[in-house]
Amino acid sequence: MSGQEDITRIRVQYTKGHELRFIGHLDMQRLWERLLRRSGLPIRYTQGYHPRARLNLASALPLGFISDAELLDFWMNEPLPLEDIRERLSTAAPPGLTIVSVQDVDLREDALQVQMTASEFQVSFFDRQEKAELKGKVEALLSQEEIIRTRRKKTYDLRPLILGLEVRGGDESEVGLWMRLLAEPGATGRPDEVMDELGFENTAYLVRRTRLIFSNY
Amino acid sequence: MTYLSSESLWRRVERLLPTVVKPGRYVGGEINQIVKPWDSVQTHIALVFPDIYDLGQSNLGIAILYDTLNQREDIAAERAFSPWTDMEAALRETEIPLFSLENKRPLADFDIIGVSLPYETLYTNFLNILDLARVPIYSQERTKDQPLIIAGGESVYNPEPVAPFVDAFTIGEGEEVILEIVEAYQTWQKVGGSRYDLLIHLAEIPGVYVPSLYEVTYQDDGTIADVAPTHPAAKTPITKRIMAKLPPPLTHFIVPNIETVQERVSVEIMRGCTRGCRFCHAGMVNRPIRERSLEEILTALRRGLDQTGYENLSLLSLSSSDYSQIIPLIEGLRELLTERRVDITLPSLRIESFSEELMDALQTLTPGGGFTLAPEAGTERLRNIINKPISNQELLETTRSIFKHGWYSIKLYFMIGHPQETLEDIQAIVDLCKTILKEGRKLVGGRARLHAGISTFIPKPHTPFQWAAFDTLDSIKNKLEILRSGLHGAKIKMTWNDPQESLLEAWLSRGDRRMADVVYHAWRNGARFDAWREHFNIEHWQQAFETVGLDPGFYSHRARDLDETLPWDHIYTGVRKDFLKKDYRWSLEGRVRPDCRERCYGCGILTAFNELRLKSPDGGWKCP
Is it the case that residue B348 has pLDDT exceeding 90? Predict the structure, then answer.
């Protein structure tokens, strides 16, 4: 066994593509455990009869979404060159998961979930939307002082969770939406809820997470 | 029929996916999946397991064939499973045909559709898949341009209840015959010819049964008069195929992205069983016993872990503790477990092959938790009748030893409805369980737990009990009641099979070709997912029997005459009917037939496959 001083904490930024769109959060954790095991890296396991790889995903991505900017931490028993780590992870990755970057982080840093404050999303529609109409809907929603909704039998106000909401594209490119939503423990905005409020419950669209925003990162 | 190009089909499916439960079932894209450009290969085969992905993806048979076929450059094998009911409704409503997971192509675009039928309660799902694929249900209605439907698996040792739906069956082990079928198909394509010509070419392959080339006639009493070939290419009997030597184990497993029933590296350590339990279909049809070498198993497990990243591994066999090198294997596993930080699942250990040494070795492998044994009957008398001769003394000693070695929970499998069973045999199950639990309490105290798993005996084709009758529902219910009232208590748990589901299994496993119409009508009545308790509805089946005009009791509750031509007699497993008959007579006398590893009783398997054995002296056969 290696000593405590050799333990390293590795942060990975990765994408979740179309192939993994319908793979949920718990399944992503299992997927990562197996990816790490396949990589052959000296990963750290939990103690006990049923050892599991120690890993930590920053934020659950709802089923059906894709992402350019997912983050995960895992721990290793010994340090290795970052380029080697990146290469071994890339080789072991399933279709739809690309390793964007790999970095060393301080062992004492807080868990990723704790550091997160907001997420940014981009929404594209399966069918063409009128830009002016879309703008009207967005303005109407943002002008409301509160947007009371229920999630799992609890009432909450969606309005303060929307940090930003804009119509993007148009003219040459397709019209879509951009939004920044709060993501703090107990106060996380979901893009699909914003879409429902905009009147798109029965419209086919695709959500892409483009950025995770951290308090201190 | 026009088909959608796969891209636009996929665009349409993508709109449906957010509306269904677990859409990850329908997208493929797993690691180790093999996707070949559609036009880059000559022959396309869809491999179908007719239940949902969550269940079917773990099936080792399909996984082996997928790997075998895809190793050929001219073949692409892709997967398809039953859609769950919500997805089925969505597909039907939007008129999207069932598609493969790899290239997302409609199944009707494939040259061959190969269906795995390991158990009978998949039959209605099989028909449903044909329907969702827009392939005619009945073989005779298919045209030359439609896919060839082949089926294999343990249940098709009696192919008759699904005969009219299948173009060709593979009987026995499929690893080699599947490639021979593809080659015959390719030759037929090159030469040209009718669909009938293709079927005749297929019938010429050993182990392939083309049911449309046989005519079945019946006697006045409803029993079979004859099963007669209508073409010289069609042989009787059809002898099953076996591998002279088990091929290198699969290590390139597809790793599902969503949770499925068994996610682990599974290596079959041996095929076949020499014990000869008289109720056991697998033990009779999978002869002879062939072992893989210790080194091959351990290497395959390591490679499998490398390629999958699984955290669990499993050894497959009908009776792992009979493996001739079980102790060294466990030693090797122990090393592997520490090295890779993985868990192990080790099923099917036999009570009589337990030694202290084995128990000591196992203790370090799977410490704590539960331990499973299968005495199958409550009394020594009945265990002799079913040829699972274990004395109560042995059983008690084994369970004591299990508790002593640190396990505190024991699961015991019993079967009810055996031939010659009395209510005393049922009461004996209760007494036995209580005695074992009491002993356990002495050894490990209040932690001792017992779980009794009760299944119902079904007289299966090709076993010594194939002539016996299936117990009546009233009798089964009465026996379950005795067990339920006897086996209650905080430390005892009892689970049991739904007797009606067993009845369906009895009808289907013992049916003749007329039963196919019952299957068809049951499906039309709405039967699907018959293996799922929440979906199974016996009324669909009772109505179907009525529509077709057949008496269900004729199939399930009738003891068959020893001289009767049975619906599956033209399928030969290598075990002679005479041998089965003699074994059945022995059972009536309570006479036991010992393990045939020790001495050969001439079941017929060596005669049937003698040449094959001579050609492969290193095949690991354990026949004496």
Answer: no
B347 — pLDDT class (breaks 50, 70, 90): low
The owner of tokens 């036991």 is B592
Report the DSSP pairing between strands B238-239 and B224-229. unpaired
Rg for chain A, CA atoms, rounded: 20
Strands A116-125, A176-184: pairing is antiparallel
Residue B594 lies in a domain: no
d(CA B508, CA B515): 7
Q: Which pLDDT value is given to residue B320? A: 87
| Identity of the amino acid at A134 | L
CATH number, domain at B71? 3.40.50.2300
Q: B311 vs A33: CB contact, 8 Å cut-off?
A: yes
Q: Which of B15, B26, B29 sits opposite A95 (nearest CB)?
A: B29
- Within a domain: B201: yes
Q: Give phi and psi for B270, each to the nearest 5.
A: -160, 160
pLDDT of residue B4 exceeding 80, the answer is no
* Chain A residues lying within 8 Å of B33, measured CB to CB: 95
Query: CA-to-CA distance for A173 and A22, rounded, in angstroms?
Result: 26
Which tokens in the block code for residue B96?
A: 């999207």
CB pair distance less than 8 Å for B23 and A34? no
Report the candidate in B547, B560, B582 with the shortest Cα–Cα distance to residue B511: B560
From the list B407, B300, B316, the residue with the least C-alpha distance to B362 is B407
Check CB contact of A95 with chain B, cutoff 8 Å. Answer: yes
E-state strands within B408-508: 409-416, 449-456, 492-496
Per-residue model confidence as pLDDT tens digits over B202-249: 999 999 999 999 999 999 999 999 999 999 999 999 999 999 999 999
* Min distance A38 CA to chain B CA atoms (Å): 5
Distance from CA of B526 to the nearest CA of A (A): 29
Token pair 């006990």 is at which residue? A48
Pairing of strands B492-496, B449-456: parallel
Helix, strand, coil content of chain A in percent (nearest 5)? 25, 35, 35
Amino acid at B587: S
- Interface contact flag, A23 B258, Cβ < 8 Å: yes
CA-angle at A14, arms to A12 and A17, nearest 5°: 165
Q: Is B462 left (phi over 0), alpha (psi -120 to 50) or beta?
A: left
CB pairs under 8 A between A and B: 73
Decide if B592 is inside a domain: no
Spans of all domains in chain A = 4-109, 114-214
Q: Do residue B310 and residue A37 have CB atoms under 8 angstroms apart?
A: yes
Taking a C-beta distance cutoff of 8 angstroms, is the pair B134, B114 a contact?
no
* Rounded mean pLDDT, B537-549: 98
Is A126 close to B15, i.e. CB distance below 8 A? Answer: yes
Contact: B29, A19; criterion CB under 8 Å: yes
| CATH match for A114-214 among 3.30.70, 3.40.1390, 3.40.1620, 3.40.630 | 3.30.70
Task: Please state the domain count of chain B.
Answer: 1
CB B130 within 8 A of CB B82: no
In this prediction, residues B341-370 reach a mean pLDDT of 78
Neighbours of B368 (CB within 10 A): 11
Q: Terminal CA-to-CA distance of chain A, rounded, Å?
A: 32
Fold of A4-109: Alpha-Beta Plaits (3.30.70)
Q: Which secondary structure element, helix H or strand E, spans residue A25, and what is its range? A: helix A25-39
Q: Give domain status of residue B268, yes or no.
A: no
Cα-Cα-Cα-Cα dihedral of A77, A82, A87, A89, to 10°?
50
Q: What is the dihedral of CA B99, B102, B103, B108, to 10 degrees?
A: -30
Q: Which residues pair with B376 in a beta bridge?
A: B414
From residue A178, alpha-carbon distances to A145, A148, A208 in Å are: 20, 22, 10
